[in-house]
Amino acid sequence: MSPHPLPRRVAARALAILLTGALAFGAAPGIGFGAEEELREARQELRETKAKIRAKSKKLNELQRDLNRLGTEIVRNQAQILEADERTEKLQVEVAVLEARTARLQESLNDRNREAYIQGPGAPVLYLLTATSASEAADRLSMITEMNRRDELLASKVEENTERLSRARAELLRLQRARELALQQLEVQQVELRQKFAQARRLYAELRDHKEEVLATIAKYRPFAICPIQGPHALTDSFGIWVHRSKKRGGDHVHQGVDIMAPGGTPIVAPFDGTAVAVPNRLGGKAVNVYGEFGYVYNAHLSAYGQLGPVETGDVIGYVGATGNTSANHDHFEWHPDDGEAADPYPFLLKVC
Q1: Which end of the chain has fewer CB atoms at under 10 Å, N or C?
Q2: Mean predicted confidence (pLDDT) in 273-293
Q3: Quick count: other Cβ atoms within 10 Å of Cβ 55?
Q4: Taking the mean position of all CA atoms in its chain, how far away is CA 352?
Q5: Other CB atoms closer than 10 Å to residue 51's CB: what's the count?
Q6: Using one digit for the tens of pLDDT, what is the confidence trace for 124-168?
Q7: What does the DSSP assignment read for 239-289?
Q8: Using DSSP, how many helices (H) and how many strands (E) does the chain show?
Q9: Tens digits of residue pLDDT in 214-235
């Protein structure tokens, strides 16, 4: 936005037009065979790098599917282990109850057996024969029958409880073994998951390096990944024109950027990955610089700021307005390659806008 000597700016504009014209439309008569060959090699390098990225992306996608599968298996395995733990706790309580009940029933049965042994095999018959009347004999017979029934029921309960205890113990043992196997499998899966993560990190790093290669190559011919205005707009070829202004409004100067006309409030986005920094000033009003790897862009006259700090391509950094030294809604857009003097961004904007 600051004034610069006219001859220098006119010469710079003429040189920029020659260079960008050659890049946009192929080798012009003024570009020698060496430059044309260099451009051809750079484009071939870009194609090869993109092919490498596609190959690694495919491998990374396969690796991601493996990671998803492993993660799912691990979660399900952990759920099975937790379920086994809960079931084991319940079974242990059930086994303890069954053991205590079995012990009581067995003790009662043992008492009955000892009593029968002490009385001898003829005791029930003798008890029946010593009755003094038919009625008493009938009562004693009923008593003997009831005692036999109770003994049989007690023996049946002991047998049933013993079987239930045996099944519970077998189920408990099965669960314990299954849990051990699940823990072993979980350990194997976690080791595999760590290995896959390490492999994925290596692939991501390789992809990032290739991405930087591609960005470096693309930046030679196309510095902006997307149009900085996300909405209806009018792109003006206004870099390098002589602007007449009063001293109060900045004085006469060569226009250092391109004015992109758009309705107020239209989003302005980062044209590449980088860092957005607010740089408000008297002439530009609310303004934002986005610093990337190969230079920075300057956006002026914003109505409001958007996301500042680290940004990715397409993040909203502000909104079109008319703050500063202007009376119309537009984005004054400057391109400073390698953080140096402003260069004409118009041919590059035509490719993305």
Answers
A1: C
A2: 95
A3: 11
A4: 30
A5: 11
A6: 656 556 667 777 667 666 766 777 777 777 777 778 877 888 887
A7: TT-EE---GGGT-SEE--SEEEE--TT-EEE-SSSEEEEE--BTTTBEEEE
A8: 5, 11
A9: 666 666 667 898 999 999 898 8
| SS3 state of residue 287 | strand
The answer to whether 243 and 287 have CB atoms below 8 angstroms apart is: no
d(CA 172, CA 229): 68
Structure tokens at 101: 């009940």
Place of tokens 């492999």: 199
Identify which of 278, 267, 279, 311 has the alpha carbon closest to the alpha carbon of residue 292: 311
d(CA 79, CA 158): 37
One DSSP character per residue, 40-67 reads: HHHHHHHHHHHHHHHHHHHHHHHHHHHH
Q: Could you tell me the two tokens for 43?
A: 């484009």
Amino acid symbol at 156: S
Helix (H) or strand (E) holding 208: helix 134-221
Q: What residues pair up with 290 in beta bridges, in sequence order?
A: 276, 297
Say if CB 347 and CB 258 are below 8 A apart.
no
pLDDT at 33: 53
CA 293 – CA 219 distance, rounded (Å): 9
In the chain the first and final C-alpha atoms are separated, in Å, by: 23
Residue 271 dihedral angles phi and psi, to the nearest 5°: -80, -5
Beta-carbon count within 10 A of 91 CB: 20
pTM beyond 0.85, yes or no? no
| Residue 163 per-residue DSSP state | H
